[in-house]
Write a structure and sequence with these properties.
alpha/beta; Rossmann fold; BCA_ABC_TP_C; binds adenosine-5'-triphosphate; ATP-binding; four-stranded antiparallel β-sheet; 36% helix; 246 residues; ATP binding; ATP hydrolysis activity; Amino acid/amide ABC transporter ATP-binding protein 1 (HAAT family)
C-alpha cells in the first residue's frame, strides 16, 4: 500500500543557508511520527514544505499516492492534509462554534455569503457541535476565542484541522506556551484522535514525544540524523550527543 505521506530527498535553501537536506521519510495510516531536533534544525521549514507554504528546491512530496510537490496548499488540504500552526491564527472575536462552522463551510466549498445563513445548514451545525464535544469545548460554544485560556485555543486549532476530515494531520508544537496544568487536556485530545489518522508532530516536550510517538525522526542541521522507534532513538548515542543529552 502506498504511504499516506512520503518525502523523497526534499531540499530547501534560503540564500546560502541550507535548511533542509535530502530529507526522506514516510508516514502510514495510524502512525504517530514525531519530528524532533535542536532549534533551527529545519523542522518547521520541513512542515511548511509538506503543507505547501514553502516550495521545495528539489525532492518530492507524495500524498496518498499523488505527487503534490507543485500543488498549492489548498489542493493538498483537499487531498487530505491538514495542519495546525505554531502561532495561534484564530479569529479572536468569533464564538468558538462559529469558527468551527466556518471551517466546515470552507471544506464543503460553501461561499462566504452562505455563511451568513449558517443556521440553515443544520447538518454542519450538528457536526460543529460534535467536534466541540470531542475536544471538550462544548461549554465554550458561544465564547469568543480570545476569552479562552491558551491551552483551550490550541484545542480549537486541533478541532479546526479535524473539521477538514484529514487523513494526515501535521501538528506544529501543540504544547508550546501551554501551562503545565492545561497539558493533560491536550494530551487526552491527542490520544483521542482517530486511530487510522497519520499524525506528524513537531514537539520539544520530550515527555510528550516519547509517550505519543510510535516512530521518531531526528533532524539535525537540516538532515535526518536518525529514525526509529522511541527506544531506538533514546539509546542512539548520536541523538544523545546532538539533542537529548545524557
Ligand atoms: N523564511 C526564511 N528565510 C530565511 N531563513 C529562514 C527562513 N525560515 C527559516 N529560516 C532559517 O532556517 C533555519 C531552520 O529554521 P526552522 O524554523 O525550520 O527550524 P526549527 O527546527 O523549526 O526550529 P525551532 O525548533 O526553533 O522552531 C533557521 O536557521 C532559520 O533561521
Amino acid at each position: 500500500m502506498s504511504p499516506l505521506l512520503q518525502l523523497r530527498q526534499v531540499d530547501k535553501r534560503y540564500g546560502g543557508l541550507h535548511v533542509t537536506r535530502q530529507v526522506s521519510f514516510r508516514l502510514d495510516a495510524g502512525d504517530r511520527l514525531a519530528l524532533i531536533g535542536p532549534n533551527g534544525a529545519g523542522k518547521t521549514t520541513l512542515v511548511h514544505q509538506i503543507s505547501g507554504v514553502v516550495p521545495s528546491d528539489s525532492g518530492e512530496v507524495w500524498l496518498r499516492g499523488e505527487n503534490v510537490t507543485r500543488l498549492p496548499q489548498a489542493r493538498r488540504v483537499r487531498h487530505g492534509l491538514a495542519r495546525t500552526f505554531q502561532i495561534t491564527t484564530l479569529a479572536p472575536h468569533l464564538p468558538v462554534q462559529r469558527q468551527i462552522e466556518m471551517a466546515l463551510f470552507e471544506r464543503e466549498g460553501l461561499s462566504a455569503s452562505a455563511w451568513r445563513s449558517v443556521d440553515s445548514y443544520p447538518a454542519l451545525t450538528a457536526e460543529a457541535q460534535e467536534l466541540l464535544g470531542r475536544f471538550g469545548l462544548r461549554a465554550h460554544a458561544a465564547t469568543a476565542t480570545e476569552d479562552l485560556a491558551y491551552g483551550e485555543q490550541r484545542l480549537i486549532e486541533m478541532a479546526l484541522a479535524m473539521a477538514l476530515r484529514p487523513k494526515v494531520l501535521l501538528l506544529d508544537e501543540p504544547m508550546a506556551g501551554v501551562p503545565k496544568g492545561d497539558g493533560a487536556r491536550l494530551l487526552s485530545a491527542l490520544d483521542a484522535l482517530p486511530k487510522d489518522l497519520g499524525v506528524l508532530i513537531i514537539e520539544h516536550d520530550m515527555d510528550l514525544v516519547f509517550r505519543f510517538a510510535n516512530r521518531i525522526v531526528v533532524l539535525c542541521e537540516g538532515a535526518v540524523l536518525a529514525e526509529g522507534s522511541p527506544d531506538d532513538i533514546r539509546r542512539d548515542p548520536r541523538v544523545r550527543a546532538a539533542y537529548l543529552g545524557n
